[in-house]
Amino acid sequence: MTARLAYVPAIAAALRDHGIAVVAGAHGLGLRATARKAVEADREIWELDGDGHAHGCLAGFEPLALQLLDEAERHHPALVAAHEQSLKRLWPRRDSSAYALPRDLTSTSVRDERTRFYHHEYQNKLLVGLAEFMLAVLAVRRQAVVVVIDNAERLPPTSRSLLAVLRRLQERSARLPGRTCCLQCVLLERGDANGLNGSHTGCNADHDTGRSTGQHAGCDTRRSTDHSAGGGTGSFVDCNNGGDTGRAAKHITDPVTIRIAPLTLAEFEAATDLVHLTPFQRETVYRQSGGNPATCRVLATCLGHDLGKAATLPVTTVIDLYLGTLDMARRRDLARDWVASSCQGDLIAQRNAATLPAAELDELHHAAHVAAWQRHTAGQGPLVLVHALAIRDPLRRLQALVEPCDVLMGIGLYDTWFDFFAELFSSDVLRRQGSGDDAINGLFINAAFVLYAMGYTAAALALLDDFLTTFPASRFVPTALYAQSMTYGRYQVPVDLPAAEDCAVRNLRLIAEQFADHPRHTYIKVFAENAYAYIKARQGKFDEALALCEHGIAEIVSAYGEDQFQLHRSILIYNTSQVYELVNDLERAERRLRTAIACDPFYAEYYNDLGNLLSRSHGREDEALDAYARAIALSPPYYEAHVNRGMLRAELGDVEGAAADFERALVIKPAEWRAFRELGNLRLVAGDAAGALAAYDAALQIEAHDADLLANAAVAASELGDSALAIRHCQAALAIDPRHANARDNLAAELAALSSPDSVQRYFHLTEEQDAAD
């Protein structure tokens, strides 16, 4: 199909003005040719397929990204090294001569020993790292690229998130002098007038946060912890600060959608070979085809010389009648071609596959899935799910998905996982399949870990309860009870420590009774004790928590030596350090933390926590800054470490460095409200009350329940003379923390300034009552 020239100016304008255009229309209407015509001549065009099931979790972008990686390895290895932590996690089977750092134990441990998995926010860090790498390579190439993504309605969630990050980063970059958009996208969203093809899902528009800057004595100086890994035998300090659920201020313009209409009759006749038909017959075929030449070609195949006569039935019916004229050998050939093309083809092939016996298609798809999986494990192709997902037998489909789900979990791409797995997860029948010891049963337990780390605790607990009832003797019971205890004691809001303790105690009793002869008994027991230690720490029983951790470390080494279970041992040591820090034994905390680092020297979170620990000791600020710098160097874009370093820099008077860290945190995570708060604090100290209040307002749009933030916003409002706003913020802060001294003092000052002695007296009376109650 040739380009639809009437639509070219609109597409070109959308690319010029927004860097992205959505072109929507059915197959056969010339979308790709039209998009190609709209691209400026000096632009390099990449035509890619966005179908995530057929082309992997980064469909629409992965071939370009890998090509840029190849180029950078040859010509700009420093760019690869600068972004290697993101690149080697997204492509764990691909090595590079440009990589400068070894992998941490999370990446190198065998699957059975991997007791740490990535927090759900980790994906955003990876995608920011990938997007920055791609844009950096394109910038040094000095040639703009346009990616034309076909089947964009099938983009996987990970690709949609990458697209949003690319748009956001380029929108920010465009504000700088001399910077232009080096990567543009045309999304071809396909639909089918006959209802046989995919659906229109729209483009996932991202929201940017406005930049306002704005410090007040008494502001919160708590350090942030990393979200890069969680669950498993994860850290004691609860680092689940929530996802990117809020948006502040500024909204990136939604992409323009250009809808390609069906052809007019004249255009249709020019695009099809229907000259042998009468005008009446041509018009009849035109209407039956919906003005789509591709549908016309299908009808011509099905009807042959009868095309001009048999035009009264729906297209699907015509196809079914045609398929009825074919022998089964021909239909099986069509089906094999359909599967080999990753389920791409015309309406005849699609309908043929849908109407063949399920068992026959399942065999073809299973064989294709095995071949695709072997290519992926050999590093020769993306993670292809189309064949596994096309298997109609639910149990067989679930079995085919075990290994791909493990890959997605290992990278942290949970949204893409649940995009296809949620339907299977919701099936009571499938959750009860297997012996309880099978790989599919372990898949559901892994799903529970991911769900509670993502905040879906109700779904995780329901699954775990069901599993424990259905499979009380399963080898996964200790893992399920561990997950339950962590869900109740760490991730559920509010936590339920008695329920968490009950699960942990039951787990230890069961391990002693049923797993005493297991070859990995010590490991399983120590794994469970770690959850119990976490609960003890949350209960304030620090001596018991420490005893459990120290005993576990000794048992692991005694049973397995120094070389096995290094990841779990490093986590136990790290947890011990955190308990020592909680009881303010900073010397032992540091000693233990450095031992954990020696076990896993390339894991960024340990260095971030070391920076937090050292920042509490006077005279060790430079060491803390070095630790934060190491954490940032070791991690994909690490916004927590930037926030923490920025806060320390602010305390040391390095305003410029602090502001740079907070701004960098907001590039990585636009809804990081602490960075807005700290920028507000900087502006307030600098005397810019208006800038401070703007930054505080941006933070409050995301997090409205932080007493320090509200109290500081009240100070800014007071300095601007807005007493009503200052009083509201003070009252809101005191509702959260009735003992907040700054909020009390500021509220009293505002009431006094209003010349209302009765109000001031009433306020002090209420606070005295509150103090007495406390």
Automatic annotation (TrEMBL):
InterPro entries according to UniProt: TPR-like_helical_dom_sf, TPR_rpt, Ycf3
Keyword Repeat included in the entry's annotation: yes
Domain of life: Bacteria
Keyword Endoplasmic reticulum appears in the UniProt entry: no
Ranges occupied by TPR repeats: 639-672
Keywords of this entry: Repeat, TPR repeat
Gene3D superfamilies, A to Z: Tetratricopeptide repeat domain
Pfam families: TPR_16
Disordered: region residues: 203-230
Protein name (database record): Tetratricopeptide repeat protein
